[in-house]
Amino acid sequence: MSENQNIKVAVDAIVFGYQNNQLYVLLIQQKFGTKDSYWALPGGLVQNDESLEDAVKRELKEETNISVNYFEQLFTFGDDVFRDPRNRVISVAYFALVDSSKLNVKADSDAENAQWFKIDEVPALAFDHTIILGKAMERLKAKLTYEPIGFDLLPKVFLFSELENLYCTILEKEIDRRNFRKKILSFEIVEETDHFSPLKSGRPAKLFKFNKQKYNALLDKGFHFEIKFA
Amino acid sequence: MSENQNIKVAVDAIVFGYQNNQLYVLLIQQKFGTKDSYWALPGGLVQNDESLEDAVKRELKEETNISVNYFEQLFTFGDDVFRDPRNRVISVAYFALVDSSKLNVKADSDAENAQWFKIDEVPALAFDHTIILGKAMERLKAKLTYEPIGFDLLPKVFLFSELENLYCTILEKEIDRRNFRKKILSFEIVEETDHFSPLKSGRPAKLFKFNKQKYNALLDKGFHFEIKFA
DNA sequence: CTATATTTGTTTAAATCTTACGCATTTAGA
DNA sequence: TCTAAATGCGTAAGATTTAAACAAATATAG
């Protein structure tokens, strides 16, 4: 058994946000790196006495000053032995969704610039981070269809049209507005609020909210969320 | 940054097999451990210059003498800092499916006993391997419904009734035999062979085979395999 | 040799779900 | 007051799923 194993363990965070029909991802750049240093996913080495999940939360907080409650493990990248040219490093990637309010807080820290990028304006990234981001996008798209995670990207109360646009934008598909509404409502996991939207034009729209308790209760009974598209 | 990180990286293999309406998993036991040493998943530390996938293939070969072409990454277990009491170890778990012919080869090596266990006769396992196996089972069940992986557990040619029983057994569900056949056939990814089964009783049955090329071609066109149950 | 049990394979009818729209409603603004 | 824009409701045709009936081919018991 290789007693002299010398492999470092890192974590990386893919944090997605959404605002104005745009998907965003949170990136950092070393403040004191070379001028043209690459942007990268937040992340860093795991400490000896720290769980992987605690590590990714800590690094994200340190590097961007953003806190996220729920992380999901995405994948562990370690097949390319030279993915980090300095040392053998394997990275456990986690992804998280935050609601739009977090997009406005100044994400920053002493050592790093942190910035939200529109997903189609992401520059070339450091290491294999472009690949990691690609895999995260795949997962996001897949999960959107079989778990009600779209709500995590929206404010607590939202319009049906916002939910609908979120699906169209992220999945890059057309949806029939009326069938989409009917489908979501049939699940009985979103409910009307008393409030109406501050309207721009057209008929004022009801604000809805996601009932997570109800969703969890239904899950126990064998309910399965699914949105399909042509 | 913790320059003195001291975390070991291991891989573990969950290898499933299937025979006679039974799902099996491959386990090992140290030959020179204490008498009552636990059974465990095959696995071990990753070498410095070796990809994670190569590592799991090597360990499996060394410990059980079984070779597997396709491994899928399952999950990385590293949140319990003391999952291995000797050292901080994180483990990247991989899972694989082998066809029934491999169940008969003597799986063994110098240093370990290797043995196939029926899935409901698995003993208490070392470390957190019971949890890992549980997660692998979940993944197997899920994938069975949305990818045609059942064929990987069967011989190259098989009976519809065998495929059907595999689904019933692993998912622990009842299926209508006739609707199941109709559904699978509608995908046009299995085809008849000229051969018939060596029969026991009843009407002789055609042997079928999975056409992987056709499946891949359909995938490109947007086809999506799915078997649902009540 | 015949009847029966057993397993395979085909077909159908009803129920359910999806898809593709039509159209009324409610507001802002010209 | 008319029009544009967006919301909200309903419905008919088509596709899919579900629940079976039934026919075919063989082994085996008597």
TrEMBL record, chains A, B:
Domain Nudix hydrolase: 6-139
InterPro entries linked: Nudix_hydrolase (IPR020476), NUDIX_hydrolase-like_dom_sf (IPR015797), NUDIX_hydrolase_CS (IPR020084), NUDIX_hydrolase_dom (IPR000086), WH-like_DNA-bd_sf (IPR036388), WH_DNA-bd_sf (IPR036390), WHD_NrtR (IPR054105)
Top-level taxonomic group: Bacteria
A Pfam family that the UniProt record links to this protein: WHD_NrtR
Keyword terms, alphabetized: Hydrolase
Family statement drawn from the similarity comment of this UniProt entry: Belongs to the Nudix hydrolase family.
Name used for this protein in its record: NUDIX domain-containing protein
